[in-house]
Amino acid sequence: MDWLAPIFDSDALPVGILVLIVIEAVALWVWQRLNPTSPLGSPNTARIVSFLGAGGSLVAAMIFHRRPEPSPEGFALAMLAALVIHLWHITVLLRR
C-alpha cells in the first residue's frame, strides 16, 4: 500500500475528485436533456449545479486547507461558497 502515499501527499486526489464532479455534472445534464421524461424528473440545471457545486466547494476548501502554507482566506471563501450553494440547493428542492 506504500504506492498510495504519494497520491495522498499531493493534490492529485482532491483535484481528481473535482474533475469527476465536473464530468458527473456534464453527464447528468446531457442525460437529462436526452431523457426529459426520466424518473429523475424534467431537466433541471439548477438542481444539478446546486447539488454538485456544494460538494465541489467542500473539496476546494480541502485543497486550500492542506497546502504546505494553508490559505485561511481561500478556505473561508470555499466554505462560504459551499454554504451558499447548499442553501441554494435547499431552495431549489423546496420549489419542486
Features:
single chain, about 100 residues, mainly alpha, 4 helices, about 0% strand
Helix residue percentage? over 70%
Give unreliable regions as ranges. none
Number of helices: 4
* Total beta strands: 0
Q: Termini distance? A: 46 Å
Structural class category:
mainly alpha
Bulk shape? flat
Give helix and strand order, one letter per element, not per position.
HHHH
Task: From the alpha carbons, calculate the radius of gyration and give it in angstroms.
Answer: 16 Å
What's the pLDDT, averaged over the residues? 86
Q: Tell me the major beta sheet.
A: none
Strand content: under 5%
What does this structure look like?
The radius of gyration is 16 Å and the shape is flat. Helix 2 runs antiparallel to helix 3 (45-65) and helix 3 (45-65) packs antiparallel against helix 4. It has 4 helices and no strands. Helices cover 75% and strands 0% of the residues. It has helices at residues 5-9, 12-34, 45-65, 72-94. By secondary structure, the protein is mostly helical. The mean pLDDT is 86. The longest helix has 23 residues, at 12-34.
Show the helix and strand layout.
Elements: H1 5-9, H2 12-34, H3 45-65, H4 72-94
Helix pairs in contact: 2-3, 3-4
In short:
It contains 4 helices and no strands. It is mainly alpha-helical. The longest helix has 23 residues, at 12-34.
